[in-house]
């Protein structure tokens, strides 16, 4: 009994507030949807597939992948962290059940992207909320940088057909 209390106390201290955030995201995610995300500081996508290829007034971008080959082909050769995330994904077109959504935002260097929540907006449509961490209030910069969030989705209903990524007041819609 004493050991359980010590372990529980140590876990509570080690996670210091992270547990509440995990519970909030878990509570807002449909139960038949498996989700993993990874924040990447920078642009792992080749430039013509990234937010940098969009018009300057569009600071939020999303893209999706159904196979490992297409995801690897869109990543820069030195995007090690992103490539590792892709390698651990069992893609739908490769016999697995997952799709990969990559959300990007042009923003200030101190901003970090994190998964805010996921909700269903239709039978095979999802809305993914991306939160900005690291700053408070509105963020404006004259020299924005690329921030990226990789999101692995596994849906018991089958892969989504449409995904809307909402980051702040901007949205990016994609067909998966």
Low-pLDDT regions = 1-8, 10-27
Q: What is the string of SSEs from the N terminus onward?
A: HHEEHHEEEEEE
Category from helices, strands and their pairing: alpha+beta
Radius of gyration: 17 Å
Overall pLDDT, averaged? 85
- Please work out how many helical segments DSSP would assign: 4
- Report the major sheet: 4 strands, antiparallel
Strand order within the widest beta sheet: 1-6-3-2
The rough form would be described as globular
Strand-residue proportion: 35-45%
How far apart are the termini?
49 Å
Give the fraction of residues assigned to helices: 10-25%
What is the tally of beta strands?
Answer: 8
Could you outline the blueprint of secondary structure elements for this entry?
Elements: H1 2-15, H2 18-28, E1 33-41, E2 60-65, H3 68-74, H4 80-87, E3 98-107, E4 112-122, E5 125-133, E6 145-155, E7 162-167, E8 170-175
């Amino acid at each position: 009994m004493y050991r359980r209390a010590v372990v529980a106390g140590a876990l509570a201290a080690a996670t210091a507030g992270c547990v509440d955030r995990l519970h909030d995201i878990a509570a807002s995610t449909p139960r038949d949807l498996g989700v993993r995300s990874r924040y990447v500081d920078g642009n792992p996508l080749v430039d013509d597939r990234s937010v940098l290829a969009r018009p300057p007034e569009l600071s939020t971008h999303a893209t999706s992948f159904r196979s490992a080959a297409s995801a690897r082909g869109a990543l820069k050769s030195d995007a090690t962290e992103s490539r590792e995330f892709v390698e651990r994904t069992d893609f739908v077109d490769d016999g697995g059940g997952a799709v990969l959504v990559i959300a990007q935002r042009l923003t200030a260097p101190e901003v970090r992207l994190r998964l805010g929540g996921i909700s269903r907006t239709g039978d095979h449509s999802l809305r993914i909320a991306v939160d900005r961490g690291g700053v408070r209030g509105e963020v404006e910069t004259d020299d924005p940088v690329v921030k990226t969030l990789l999101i692995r989705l596994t849906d018991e209903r089958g892969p989504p057909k449409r995904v809307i990524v909402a980051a702040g007041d901007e949205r990016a819609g994609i067909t998966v």
